[in-house]
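PROTEIN DESIGN WORKSHEET
SECTION A - STRUCTURE
LENGTH: 663
TOKENS:
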């Protein structure tokens, strides 16, 4: 289950091992949800570029491509757990404890091809290939044993209880490696009385050569184990905050890798790169160690994909490397508290991931010297002189202009100076290209570079116009750098008329741009200059008023006379005057009808009232009551801004109409 078999591609890699390889552009890590409810084991088939994942809960195996797309599945495998790829990558063997069998699955077709019974009640759970045989850990939670399956002959041969002197608590986990083809390791998955054992299987039977653990030891349960490529060391995931390293010959613990609490997975690439996983919910969960080092070159923290606090977790034995002579892609299966399982493909796990920072001043003067500083740090420190590419983005170079290559200084620090020729937001982007042991990195910072304030004016502010008048607006733009374009916008009052661009163009040789507007409402007119590399944006506005059309017609009089300097309408006192007002219409608009009376040389207010207009802008008012004779009266209709029901026009008074009552 724990051996990651190398493919025919390995031999090709060996032939070309002397060729100097340049760092290729990295492809992005990816993640894809899997149609499983549990994850028992993961193996990678490099020939067909497929990943096989067992799902004990649903009793099935799912096969995906390297992108996580499902290409097939095999069902009816109750409790299926451990997986093992054959040496030729043609078959994946699966341990199905619920079926008391080991099942062979064709890697090309993803179809079951054979089922090998291991004996009633054996419950095989974990697999490893060594000495030309398939070895399996089987048994109950209290009593676990090692068995073998030989399929090289005409009939399969099963041999049980290969180490009768060691009872593992639980079906033991198994591991092997092509570098030591006749060596097998076993470890107990349960905590108390746990054992770790190493076996020589050269003879076809398992001869124990070393053992550690047992009652009273601090070994505890083992979640996963794997050999180093040469088989001289065994690395295990046991309780604590480290992955332990054992000398295979006598199972003496010789060192450890500091990781996090709850180690869960171990995967070792063909070049010795170690991926050590934990299921820590609030800390990094994956640690990558390059060969010969005990300090992680890189760590990963999974995202939090559910509604419960804590990151996604990495289950037991849920890591596997892409086969090859050097560490390639790393595949991890993570899960959340909603039992959602995700295949994560990590493309650059063995490479140190540098952290690049860029610090530019918050503001600076245009064409004056500024200094940009930064740092480039990594778990594998980069030497002084490491080249960094610098690009400046501004209004003159929106796609970026290279400022050349700058060198990393001592202590991972760098700095450079520049005189920004353009104002506005200026971004400095620093890029490290990466190399064979470091991933690329980039970072940027932005400077607010000063720009001059341009002169911009617009005429007519505060003026009032008659309804329907044509008003000419002229925007004047002073000195600028390159941009000579001005926009003129009109925003009529009222929510039903949106702001509208009425003209856009280059100003003339005098710096002017004009437009004539037909005014029917109060209007805010705005001139806008978008700015350029040396002059900042600016806008100015003029608000003009527009009066309504209003007239008042007098009806039911018996005559008119020109007297007292005006035309008077004469009414018999028994007749009620009718005043008809016509005004520019607007929804819910009212006209104010005002009366005055003349007494001893002065006109005095006689009262006023608002009357609604029809949709056509007409209001008819009949003056009722007792009409006194011998008095001079006058009346007028008005639109009063904000009190006539709206504010889209300016206050407008109609002409006075004079009238007189007789007997």
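SECTION B - SEQUENCE
RESIDUE ASSIGNMENT:
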């Amino acid at each position: 289950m724990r051996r990651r078999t190398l493919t025919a591609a390995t031999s090709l890699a060996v032939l070309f091992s002397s060729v100097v390889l340049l760092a290729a552009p990295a492809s992005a890590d990816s993640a894809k949800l899997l149609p499983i409810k549990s994850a028992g084991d993961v193996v990678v088939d490099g020939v067909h570029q497929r990943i096989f994942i067992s799902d004990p809960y649903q009793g099935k195996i799912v096969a995906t491509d390297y992108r996580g797309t499902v290409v097939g599945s095999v069902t009816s495998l109750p409790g299926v757990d451990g997986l093992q790829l054959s040496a030729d990558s043609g078959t994946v063997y699966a341990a199905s404890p619920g079926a008391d069998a080991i099942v062979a699955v064709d890697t090309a077709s993803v179809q079951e091809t054979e089922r090998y019974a291991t004996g009633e009640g054996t419950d095989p759970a974990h697999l490893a290939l060594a000495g030309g045989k398939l070895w399996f850990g089987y048994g109950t939670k209290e009593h676990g044993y090692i068995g073998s399956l030989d399929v090289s002959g005409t009939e399969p041969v099963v041999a049980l209880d290969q180490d009768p002197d060691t009872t593992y608590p639980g079906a033991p986990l198994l591991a092997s490696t092509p570098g030591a083809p006749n060596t097998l390791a076993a470890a107990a998955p349960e905590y108390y009385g746990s054992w770790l054992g190493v076996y020589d299987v050269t003879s076809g039977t398992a001869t124990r050569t070393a053992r550690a653990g047992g009652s009273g030891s601090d070994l505890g349960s083992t979640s996963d184990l794997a050999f180093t490529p040469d088989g001289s060391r065994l690395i295990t995931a046991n309780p604590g905050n480290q992955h332990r390293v054992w000398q295979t010959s006598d199972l003496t613990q010789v060192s450890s890798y500091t990781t996090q609490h709850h180690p869960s997975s171990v995967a070792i690439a063909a070049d010795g790169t170690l991926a050590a996983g934990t299921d820590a919910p609030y800390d990094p969960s994956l640690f990558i160690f390059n060969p010969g080092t005990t300090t992680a070159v890189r760590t990963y923290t999974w995202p939090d994909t559910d509604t419960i606090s804590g990151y996604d977790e990495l289950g037991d034995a849920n890591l596997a490397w892409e086969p090859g002579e050097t560490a390639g892609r790393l595949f991890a299966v993570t899960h959340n508290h909603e039992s959602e399982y995700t295949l994560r493909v990590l493309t650059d796990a063995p490479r140190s991931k540098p952290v690049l920072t860029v610090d530019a001043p918050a503001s600076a003067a245009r064409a004056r010297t500024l200094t940009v500083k930064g740092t480039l740090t990594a778990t594998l420190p980069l030497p002084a002189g490491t080249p960094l590419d610098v690009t400046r983005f501004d209004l003159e170079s929106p796609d970026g202009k290279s400022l050349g290559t700058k060198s990393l200084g001592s202590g991972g620090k760098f700095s450079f100076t520049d005189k920004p020729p353009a104002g506005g937001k200026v971004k400095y982007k620093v890029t490290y290209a990466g190399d064979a042991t470091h991933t690329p990195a980039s970072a940027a910072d932005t400077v607010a570079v000063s720009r001059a304030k341009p002169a911009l004016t617009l005429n007519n502010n505060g003026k009032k116009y008659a309804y329907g008048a044509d008003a000419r607006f002229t925007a004047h733009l002073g000195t600028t750098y390159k941009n000579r374009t001005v926009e003129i916008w009109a925003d009529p009052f009222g929510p039903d008329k949106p702001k509208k661009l009425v003209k856009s163009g280059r100003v003339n040789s005098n710096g002017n741009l004009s437009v004539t507007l037909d005014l029917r409402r109060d209007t805010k007119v705005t001139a806008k200059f978008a700015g350029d590399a040396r002059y900042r944006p600016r806008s100015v506005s003029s608000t003009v008023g527009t009066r309504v059309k209003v007239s008042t017609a007098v009806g039911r009089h018996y005559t008119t006379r020109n007297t007292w300097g005006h035309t008077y309408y004469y009414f018999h006192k028994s007749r009620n005057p009718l005043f008809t007002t016509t005004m520019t219409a607007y929804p819910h608009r009212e006209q104010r009808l005002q009366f005055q009376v003349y007494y001893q040389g002065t006109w005095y207010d006689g009262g006023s009232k608002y009357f609604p207009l029809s949709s056509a802008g007409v209001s008819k008012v009949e003056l009722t009551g007792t009409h006194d004779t011998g008095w001079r009266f006058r009346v007028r209709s008005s639109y009063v801004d904000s009190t006539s029901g709206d504010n889209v026009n300016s206050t407008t008074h109609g002409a006075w109409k004079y009238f007189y009552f007789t007997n």
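SECTION C - NOTES
The domain at 42-117 is CATH 2.40.10.480 (Thrombin, subunit H).
The longest strand covers residues 602-612.
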